[in-house]
Amino acid sequence: MAIISYIDAVTQALREEMQRDRRVFIMGEDVGVRGGVFRATNGLYEEFGEERVIDAPLAESAIAGVAIGAAAYGMRPVAEMQFADFIMPAVNQIVSEAAKMRYRSNNDWHCPLVIRAPYGGGVHGALYHSQSVEAMFNSTPGLKVVAPSTPYDVKGMLKAAIRDDDPVLFFEHKRCYRLIKGEVPESDYTVPLGKADIKREGEDITVISYGLTLHFALQAAEKLAEEGINAHVLDLRTLYPLDKESIVEAARKTGKVLIIHEDNKEGGVGGEVAAVIAEECLFDLDAPIKRLAGPDVPAMPYSPTLEKFFMLTPDKVMAAMRELAEF
Amino acid sequence: MAENRHQAAGLTDEQVLDMYYTMLLARKIDERMWLLNRAGKIPFVISCQGQEAAQVGAAFAFNRETDYACPYYRDMGVVLAFGMTAKDMMLSAFAKAEDPNSGGRQMPGHFGSRKHNILTGSSPVTTQVPHAVGLALAGRMDGKNPVVFTSFGEGSSNQGDFHEGANFAGVHKLPVIFFCENNKYAISVPITKQLACKSVADRAQGYGFPGVSIDGNDPIEVYKATKEAVDRGRRGEGPTLIEAVTYRLVPHSSDDDDRSYRSREEVEEAKKKDPILRFSVYLREVGLLTEEKEKELNEQAAREVDEATEYAENAPYPEPESALNHVYAE
Amino acid sequence: MATEVFMPQLGESVTEGTIAKWLVKPGDKVKKYEPLCEVTTDKVNAEVPSTLEGTVAELVAGEGDTLAVGDLICYIETEGGAAAAQAAAQPANTQETASEMPAAESPKTPVASARPSDAGGAAAKAAGKRYSPAVMRLAQENNIDLNQLEGTGKEGRITRKDVMSFIERSRTAAQPVPQAEPAIQAVSAQQRTATRQPTAAAEPERVPEPSVRPAVGTLEVSVYPGDTEIPVTSVRKTIANRMVQSKHDAPHAWTMVEVDMTNLVKLRNSLKDEFKAKEGFNLTFLPFFIKAVVESIKQFPIMNSVWAGDKIIMRKNINISIAVATDDALFVPVIKDADQKSIYGLARAVDELAAKTRQGKLSMDDMSGGTFTVNNTGSFGSVLSAPIINQPQAAIVSMESIVKRPVVIDDMIAIRDMANLCLSLDHRVLDGLVCGRFLQSVKQKLEAYGSHTSIY
């Protein structure tokens, strides 16, 4: 099986779906000729032409709104927000329109749309190229919000999202693009939305995470195993709606839970995960539910010392895991 | 004998009578809704009175079987022309389960019907404009090339979505008719406080396509301008912006009191120019409408409204737990 | 001295680069910021500038090599002894894990465990009693006394893992050590030591590897050389828990009467041989005692009650629990509807239950539904006992040894067969008055047995 990077897995998924279904098309800023500022849509313009890989004007609300109209017609658009930080002008279209279209029309219309956006920091992107914005959308019924962590998952979930009949917000951690490589089948496969995944079995502590920090957790778990601490690591994969069943099962396994995400702590998805566990697993808990997250400041600053302060690292993650194991 | 303007515009006698009836029906439904609201039977009305000519005149210019409409909340005339019925309107007003627009989930005026190619609408204004552009884009990709109608008030034409949608349509030369029903008021804010330009039509220039301003109270005039724009679209020449200048004869909605921002004299003056009145005069002049015929049409419309009201009033409400359905595909 | 030069981070999200072309060779003098080589990456083509001034010493990476950000690409010699600042400093791993084992202070190392506990005192057990919900649930489900565990968590906290390990070890515990055990319910602390010695025939086995942690409770219990550690079986554990529970819930009060058993002794002596021959088992004093008790309960039905929080439930059926001891355990089977049986019937029931107990054939039905307990403590020589109530019953009565004693009758001294009846009562349900009357009734009935008594 080929080992490819996270971003190549994205491109592969897009190419395969566009070959498979002529209704699939891509729209966004610089996605065509340039192949995307991160090269996520590299080669697709050449293969499918300008009608199916559209370089849109610089207008996020239109990118989302036009894609919504096309999806309502029956196409399967994959719109791109160049950086998750710039999704804000499109929030009205995403939340008021895409998310509610099926519900408000009593199932007469629906919106099979995917909006992709790179998020997360560690690339000297500063306040407006590093944000995690998922929390804003995590209580929007009608919308699905996903954030796959591995190349295998990102290809499978992007295909699943494109085939999904409801709108999906597809967040890709930009630091994972080239840093994370993994085995990805060249065949057609999907990974279901709405299902978390156990990335590592363990008996001592449960770690729940997604995105870049999931990889930190796995790294730390390997080191801690040498000390006799075995972490059970659950990759959320889908942030909304949460796979409550898997979360509860993972929490019950060890009774000690650490939730990790790069997003700010207060209001982040970790709070919802913790609430689910607190509600369902009281008599299985051996320690308070812990969250390790980004600090509650508006965004990740530019200067390297400040960025380092904000970002989680394998060491910070390992220290938190060890502390929980020793409780 | 007066000049036969409608034939010159390409309309048959049957069509104009059909237009007249649609306008009449829209008015009668609207009047009944206000009555029901004041009687405490329906909680909310949002009205089309005064704008029927603009709405019906424009709608008739489309192929209502294959073209799409993304109307705004006042467009009862448009949706009736596209095939919705008085019964549909009343079911929506009473928020009954059978309401085809939303099963009672949305307020009245939030039209939507896939089988009539009317895209479902919402309350945040102008969001339908980029949707219309998207429908046109998809229709082109699909090879079906429908022309798409989208309408909005002059206030809504200030929203970012109007400009972004128009720009996109202009760049990609999409067959979208941007139809602005300029009724001089955005709730209470008059046009002098709403627009920096003289006419909404002027904006089209910024987006690379033609814009025209027309008398929105003359259905034939509206039809003519819209037909021209639709034909342009079908020929692949891109979008058109039409500003139909009209007047809102009633308050914004049943929750508005227009006495607080405009004089009764102004409204009375506008009522004298009521488009339905004007059109009936024209039809009489060209011999299509006799006193008898007019009476007949009025009675027919009244009957239709009565039946619709009765039906809707007696129809069942949605089941409470049905509120949980259709969040996602089931 | 030669300074290392590393592959720098050439762009956002760039993680590696390929050396396209070296622009210098060993021996070349370079100034700071002069380009050393051309590098291609996914996103940009760039040049790597020199981080210092000096002479190129050795090219480590070759043209065409792909290196990760931070890998060594070449060495540059600088003049003077000062080392130039590095472009990319390697992050220092300052992680220190403290994993020292505190020295055990007790004279004997405690039981083998995965992690050392805070030996040396209860002071460090700050978190000892703070039990998490998981720990409490597991303890309840498995009837574990958490006082017996040592915590390996922070500040001595008992963790879920500790409880799970304890359960695991208990399951694989050594076979219960054969112990001659008296009927536990009836024995007070004093009596226990007194009676155990004569009957402790077999020395408890020396268990080679005790599989249970030493009981801690609020005291540190140390093990000294020569001590024997006996693992606690689940049966013993259950009994222990029930005893604790009974004493905890019911305020025990105690009273006794002396009974003149002389006539009963004569009666039994006259019947016993024929009984044995005819029925095939022994006629003991117990059925006579039970009969007297049951009839007295009928007169004082409050004795047959349970405490139910906001009410007292007076049971209609009289089901007498009798304590039966085996070599390694105590069982308390029940004679259902004892008031409907004759003395013979009671004798039969006692014999059957005793046999079933010895054969290990008691059913759940045999063991349940008791409303009042009768204990034949006299059978092992006791003259006074303070039995522990069999929850949820309201009282328990014991019949002590029959001993010939001088007593005063009609102002004269006589030698009579005397036995004490001891009653422990739940003072929430019963009080001295009714219990006194009850005992008087039992006494009277026992003293009324005589040659006229029919046992059938």
From TrEMBL, chain B:
InterPro entries: Alpha-ketoacid_DH_E1_comp (IPR050771), DH_E1 (IPR001017), THDP-binding (IPR029061). Its EC number is 1.2.4.4. SUPFAM superfamilies: Thiamin diphosphate-binding fold (THDP-binding) (SSF52518). Residues 295-306 have a biased composition (Basic and acidic residues). Pfam families: E1_dh (PF00676). It is an enzyme of class 1 (oxidoreductase). Keywords: Oxidoreductase, Thiamine pyrophosphate. The keyword Phosphoprotein does not apply. It catalyses: N(6)-[(R)-lipoyl]-L-lysyl-[protein] + 3-methyl-2-oxobutanoate + H(+) = N(6)-[(R)-S(8)-2-methylpropanoyldihydrolipoyl]-L-lysyl-[protein] + CO2. Its cofactor is thiamine diphosphate. Residues 295-330 are annotated as: Disordered. One of its GO terms (biological process) is branched-chain amino acid catabolic process. The branched-chain alpha-keto dehydrogenase complex catalyzes the overall conversion of alpha-keto acids to acyl-CoA and CO(2). It contains multiple copies of three enzymatic components: branched-chain alpha-keto acid decarboxylase (E1), lipoamide acyltransferase (E2) and lipoamide dehydrogenase (E3). PANTHER family: 2-OXOISOVALERATE DEHYDROGENASE SUBUNIT ALPHA, MITOCHONDRIAL (PTHR43380). This is 2-oxoisovalerate dehydrogenase subunit alpha. It comes from Aneurinibacillus danicus. The gene is bfmbAa.
